[in-house]
Amino acid sequence: MENIYQAYFESLPCFVTVQDRDFRIISANRMFRDNFGDHEGRFCYQIYKQRPEKCEICPVERTFRDGGEYHSDEQVRTLDGRDVCVIVNTTPIRNEKGDIIAVMEMSTDITDIKLLHQQLRESQERYRILFEEVPCYISIQDKDLRIVDANRLHREAFGTSYGGKCYEIYKHRKKECEPCTVRQTFADGKVRTHEEVVTSRDNEQMNVLVNTAPIRNGDGEIEKVIEMSTDITQIRQLQDKLTSVGLLISSISHGIKGLLNGLDGGIYLVNTGL
Question: Which of 177, 174, 236, 176 is nearest to 209 (CA)?
Fold first, then answer.
């Protein structure tokens, strides 16, 4: 039976050591030896951390102190100079009297997981920066049309309105808009575009071009809808001015045409009289 346990100990897919009260490694499995080399007579902190003294916070020490099982996240360095992130778990080894005579420390390599977490954080940060700084008003709404998130430009224009309903925030009204493109996007998952007139928290009216798109969960179900509104007030004002200029030009053209017609008539009379 002892040989079976030794075989298990040797084949465990993590770094396993058994340490005495001085933190000297008295036994280690094959994976530990392959990555950290000879351990005979050496202390754990010398091998794992290449340091001359015990770590300030040591789970092995805590296990010796009260017999509890502890875990911690650590970074260790292998024999070939690689920095490895590990999650450490300690458990006491007792004799027949129940006294703790050693502590077994199991360190699992989580370097790849840490790297993925770091990449995920960086990706989330990039998307958050894009979300915050994009030059339009963005809100994310739930199925009750409540705003659950909004970007910086939206907050500046409409206030920090988390939990408020979109028609209360945008239109200062008590009833839902008809039709509601957010509800339509929730219903069929389609991207929609339409134009609206909204009112800021300073009671300034703005013409906005609104786009809605679904936000789906891992199962493909629509959980929220993102609404992106671009301020086109200046474009609409320019269009109004151009329309006024067009009407003015048309009126002037009509007047010139009448004048020319009158001149043609006068010339005809002069020529006939002669």
Answer: 236
| pTM of the shown model | 0.64
- The matching CATH number, chosen from 3.40.50.720, 3.40.50.2300, 3.30.70.2740, 3.30.450.20, for 2-115 is 3.30.450.20
pLDDT digits (tens, 9 = 90+) for 179-194: 899 999 999 999 999 9
CATH number for the domain formed by residue range(s) 136-235: 3.30.450.20
* Backbone region of residue 67 per phi and psi (left: phi > 0; alpha: psi in -120 to 50; beta: other values): left
Task: Characterize 227-238 residue by residue with b for buried, 16 or more Cβ atoms within 10 angstroms of its Cβ, and e for exposed.
Answer: bbbebeeeeeee
Query: What is the per-residue pLDDT across 196-254, written as a single tens digit (0 to 9) for each?
Result: 999 998 899 999 999 999 999 989 999 999 999 999 888 777 766 666 655 556 666 65
Question: Do residues 103 and 93 touch, judged by C-beta distance below 8 A?
Answer: yes
CB under 8 Å, gap of 24 or more: what pairs does 73-82 form? 73/110, 74/48, 74/107, 76/48, 76/49, 76/107, 77/48, 77/49, 77/50, 78/35, 78/36, 79/35, 79/36, 79/37
Q: 76 has which bridge partners?
A: 84
Q: What is the pLDDT of residue 255?
A: 59
